[in-house]
Amino acid sequence: MKKHILTVTLVAAFLAVAFLIVRNRRNKPDEEPELTCPDFEPLYNGRDFGSSDGFDIEKEVVIGDYGPEVAFVQERLNSQYGADVTVDGKFGCETWFALGAFTGLDGSKPIDLNDLK
Known about the structure:
Blueprint: H1 2-26, H2 41-44, E1 60-61, H3 68-81, H4 93-103, E2 111-112
Antiparallel strand pairs: 1-2
Helix pairs in contact: 3-4
């Protein structure tokens, strides 16, 4: 009798979990969420850093940064990963999206330039 009750309880628990899994999968949207990126142009104030000359390999970059280190990241994305990023030394949305798509790195966290060598 105890085995019968235990079996019925386990089957009921299994069915409840299966139901919740199926219901959760049906409620997920098929489309990926649209990524948004803030406007960093005010940070750049018309500066142009289109060259990686004199970059510091020990420096880390993060979205919103600018300078030769960012130009290095952009050049590496283009040459090593086949991205088509404008090399302007500005770590804006275009660079951020490409970095995530081609390398899997999250540009909102500091990126070590050695990761792109």
